[in-house]
Specification:
This protein has about 240 residues and is an alpha/beta fold. Helices cover about 30% and strands about 15% of the residues. The structure holds 2-amino-2-deoxy-6-O-phosphono-alpha-D-glucopyranose. 2-amino-2-deoxy-6-O-phosphono-alpha-D-glucopyranose (GLP) binds near residues 133, 160 and 164.
């Protein structure tokens, strides 16, 4: 596992963006696995900036997003489809027909079939961007006695509902389930880049970088088995972990 320790969150976002930019410069038709969430949010402006400066061209990429809440309308401002459109696809001139963000409105078995098609019908993901939940989830793969390999519907952990309630009017409005790539899907990416910041991520980063255990109780620890993972954290988090 490669660890990049930056001065602060801003620099982490820049470092993660650089990983993605380098990937696309090397292979213009890269297939990117993309992430939403509060931590990944400030990575996208650096990608848009590079696009506007002419440093990188995203016109040939395809992308697949990690997850979406069940019941979420793709048109809703809280949807991950809208998040991606606003922060990356539209400002970086990306053809949306070449992107896939799962829909939380479609019948589950149909959406799972479509998700698998987007993941596997063509080529594999070249670079997967990840955040990590306070529960230790990656995508929306929550801790438990076992983990699921493929695309599935996941019941959200109480800690995830509490953490993500900041994006909703009240905790009651946070959907209770999500459709997500499974751990096996994430592990098939050629390269994985994970960004984390903040005090509430200390236990999970400690489990990932300091402890020697791989456990379903902290799904992110599965990343120790991947051959090309880069973890980007700031000095404050690195020190605490
Ligand atoms: C969200 C997303 C994850 C994300 C994680 C971290 O709920 N489903 O893909 O990586 O939780 O979120 P945040 O960065 O807001 O802490």
């Amino acid at each position: 596992m490669r660890v990049i320790v930056t001065k602060n969150y801003e620099e982490s976002c820049q470092a993660v963006a650089n990983e993605i930019i380098t990937q696309v410069q090397k292979k213009s038709d890269s297939k990117l696995g993309l992430a939403t969430g509060g931590t990944a949010e400030q990575v996208y402006p650096y990608l848009v900036k590079a696009y506007k400066e002419g440093t990188v061209d995203f016109s040939q990429i395809t992308s697949v997003n990690l997850d979406e809440y069940i019941g979420m309308d793709p048109e809703s401002p809280q949807s991950y489809r809208q998040y991606m459109a606003d922060r990356f696809f539209d400002p970086a001139g990306i053809d949306k027909t070449k992107t896939y963000v799962p829909s939380g409105l479609t019948k589950a078995e149909d959406e799972i079939a479509l998700f698998n098609e987007k993941l596997y019908a063509d080529k594999m993901i070249d670079l997967q961007l990840l955040g990590v939940g306070v529960s230790g989830h990656i995508g929306f793969n929550e801790p438990g006695e076992k983990l699921t390999s493929g695309v599935h519907i996941e019941k959200l952990d109480d800690s995830t509902i509490a953490a993500n309630s900041r994006f909703f009017d009240s905790p009651d409005d946070v959907p209770k389930e999500a459709i997500t790539m499974g751990i096996g899907d994430i592990m098939k990416a050629e390269k994985i880049v994970l960004i984390a910041t903040g005090e509430n991520k200390v236990p999970v980063i400690k489990a990932l970088l300091t402890d020697d255990e791989i456990t379903c109780k902290i799904p992110a620890t599965m990343l120790k088995m991947h051959r090309d993972v880069t973890i980007v954290i700031d000095a404050e988090l690195a020190k605490a972990a």
